[in-house]
Amino acid sequence: MRVLGLLSGTSHDGIDVAVVDFDESDGMLRGEVLRTGSVPYPAALRARLVAALPPAATTLAEVCELDTLIGQAFADVARDAAASVGGVDAVCSHGQTVFHWVEDDRARGTLQIGQPAWIAEAVGAPVISDVRIRDITAGGHGAPLVSFLDELLLREHAGVSAALNLGGIANITVVGDGLRAYDIGPANALVDAVISAYGLNPLGYDEDAAIARAGAVDDELLTALLADPYYALPAPKSTGKEHFHLAYVREHVAALGRDLPIADLVRTLTELTVQTVARDVAAAGVGYLAVSGGGCRNPLIMDGLRAALPGTEVVLADELGASADAKEAILFALIGWCTMHGIPAVIPGGTGAREPRILGTITPGSGPLRMPEPVAALRGLELTAG
């Protein structure tokens, strides 16, 4: 089965896509990655999306319009990607998270928009969507779902190994004596918010850490940021831009009672990511760390992690067969395959759910919905580049 995975992450800068050709035999799943890519959101659409995100107020009318416009943007990307490989059998779309409801340290709900019917209409294949909520109904956080892929890729490593994703939010999967996975805290979210608010880079992020390199860490601000109670919560836990956003940064800067150069602010927020991640990796005794997401292209973050973790081998996720830039898109292709074959694509230790659940809702394609024969379980996964 050839499955196309789609998502836009917490950096909400564009749409990532991967097409994977899966073949299963006796529980061993092999996936040939035929195509990966990323398509930026149109500038006007991204601006509307950013303006509607928490803590800003919005309207149901705006949510409805964004649901359609983002769905159509996803459909365009899916149509082109499917055509480039001669067609696909199914699509799995994560959509765009606009709110993740956490209360009393429990996930209560989550909302992803990007109407999947537009994708089904454009591609003609069934679309799996709304993949997080079923995990939440089973007591999980609905995140990090990537822990399912991480465990399959890391299970053969000796000792304690981990996979780290540095998107808007940093999440980690630790595999050793059992499995733990959770959101550490902000990776790029706070830096990106400052870059965008002050128009420092039209791309919306600190390319090659150029701005951070020009600044210095403000120890007083860093100490205040590190004191956030979220970091002390036990796993499993999840967070998002509902907590870590521009107003959060401005409140902490205002509390200093003095001016702070923008370069120093960006440098300090970058160091926050390094220290919060390094602290958790060291505490888990991780010997092998595979990194993915946009933050793995930030040399200041990667150099900082390697310096702070001299006993840990820090590599890019490419070494596991999952492109560091496309790993989450590959994940959603995998989730789509699992849902079509009746396999729960979640591990309780990864999200906190009581039991595994089959994820998602299926929108039929252009013809009758025909499900393949169920597969009992997966005993392994191998990924290769096509």
UniProtKB/TrEMBL annotation:
Pfam families xrefs: AnmK
Top-level lineage group: Bacteria
Claim: Nucleotide-binding is one of the keywords in the record: yes
UniProt record, GO biological process: 1,6-anhydro-N-acetyl-beta-muramic acid catabolic process; amino sugar metabolic process; peptidoglycan turnover
Binding positions (ATP): G9, T10, S11, H12, D13, G14, I15, D16
MF term (GO), any: kinase activity
Reaction equation(s) it catalyzes: 1,6-anhydro-N-acetyl-beta-muramate + ATP + H2O = N-acetyl-D-muramate 6-phosphate + ADP + H(+)
PANTHER family: ANHYDRO-N-ACETYLMURAMIC ACID KINASE
Family statement drawn from the similarity comment of this UniProt entry: Belongs to the anhydro-N-acetylmuramic acid kinase family.
Full protein name: Anhydro-N-acetylmuramic acid kinase
Organism from which the protein derives: Microbacterium tenebrionis
